[in-house]
Structures are given as structure tokens and as C-alpha cells.
Amino acid sequence: AQTVTQSQPEMSVQEAETVTLSCTYDTSESDYYLFWYKQPPSRQMILVIRQEAYKQQNATENRFSVNFQKAAKSFSLKISDSQLGDAAMYFCAYRGDNDMRFGAGTRLTVKP
Amino acid sequence: GAGVSQSPSNKVTEKGKDVELRCDPISGHTALYWYRQSLGQGLEFLIYFQGNSAPDKSGLPSDRFSAERTGGSVSTLTIQRTQQEDSAVYLCASSLAGGRGQETQYFGPGTRLLVL
To answer: What is the C-alpha to C-alpha distance for residues B85 and B89, in angstroms, rounded to an integer?
Structure first.
């Protein structure tokens, strides 16, 4: 089974600054999808951004962007101009041919 | 339109009792997933329904867990003879189709289950 690793259990960022959350994964597949989900205290999982493995261009959604390194199997999330509302658990997820796996999550704190 | 809904939002039960958790997916979504999230942990895949195909039950932790999806829409996750280790948040998600090209999953708010 594919594994997804988030090596940072907790991260902190100052409001308006930039923070990068790390994610690595293990797979033998060449075609797959990667996701970042946000889970605020309300526990509603919200899709932040997704990346298709066959696309070399990094996905971007407003203040959120990814650094997708396929050869290194790395998929980090960059949050620019951090806002208080960005505080949440962030989960990296992998969708392959047969399964979907989530990382253990990174808790992001935003300091005013 | 309405998102994924789940009920109840919270459930407290006694060890040994059976519980049923309900999920209403987004209308038109053919794929439905159940996950379990223990306190402070990531998501553990439980079961996946895609259209009328046989469900992928590979994530169910024991035979006390079962799920069904009636009419390709509403799904019920049943836990029989609950144990304290079943305490967790159970999340349901749906997506437009099961193929990887449509794999953005939309999640419900979850059901928090506490087994005393």
C-alpha cells in the first residue's frame, strides 16, 4: 500500500508570513492524484488544492501553491500571506489506482 | 447545492451496543467513502462504494463493521457490539465518480462516536 508521510506534526507561522508544509509519499504508480485538505476545529474537511501527477506545472489556488517533485515523491504546500483563518490541521492525501491514503496531518498555528 | 450531510453529529453509546451512522452524499455523486479518524490522528480508510459495483471493504477493521448504500445514494455504516476503541470521528465523503480524474472528495462534518 502507498504511504503518505507528513514529518511535521506541528507548525507555526506569523500572520502575513509564508509557511511550507511538507509531504512525501511512496508509490510505484506513475499516474495518480495528490491533495491537500484542511480540517479546522469544526472538523469539516475542506479541499485546499489538488495536483495531477502527469502535470508538471505546480497547482496554485490564490494564496496556496504546491511544490510537486515527482521524482522525489514530494508534495509540499506553501501558504503565502498567512491569515488567522488558515489555522487548522492540514492533511496530505494520495489517490492512486486502488486506494486513497492520508498523512497523519500537520497542525498549523497562526500567530497574530 | 447541499453538501455531504451526516447524522447524528454526535453519538454516545454503551459498550456492546450496535450503532448506525448515516451519510447523505452530494446529489449525483456516484462514489462514496467512509473514513475513521481517531483523536489527533489522520484518516483511516474503511470502505468505498462506486455506483452499483461491489464495495471495496478492504479497510474495515473487523467483521463488526459493515456498510450499505441503498439506491446508490444514502449510506449507513453499522458497528455491532461496539468497543471502546471504536470511539472516533467517522467521516463520509463523496465524489462525482470513482475514476481518478474525478477524485476530488467532498467531506461531511462527521459523526463523533463515543463508546463508554
So the answer is: 12
Amino acid at A81: D
Identify the DSSP state of B56.
B
Residue B103, C-alpha cell as written in the block: 477524485
Question: CA-CA distance, A29 to A77, in Å (whole number)?
Answer: 22
Q: Is the peptide bond before B8 cis (omega within 30 degrees of 0)?
A: yes
Cα B105 to its chain centre, rounded Å, is: 13
B110 and A CB contact within 8 Å = yes
Burial zone of B64 (CB within 10 Å; 0-12 exposed, 13-18 middle, 19+ buried): middle
Query: What's the pLDDT at A58?
Result: 92
Q: What is the pLDDT along chain B (116 residues), one digit of tens a residue?
A: 579 999 999 999 999 999 999 999 999 898 899 999 988 778 888 998 988 888 888 889 999 999 999 887 899 999 999 999 999 999 999 988 766 555 688 999 999 999 99
CB-based contact (8 Å) between B47 and chain A? no
B3: nearest CA in chain A? A44
**Using the 8-state DSSP alphabet, how is residue B26 labeled?**
P
Q: Does A5 touch chain B (CB under 8 A)?
A: no
Q: How many CB atoms lie within 10 A of CB B114?
A: 13
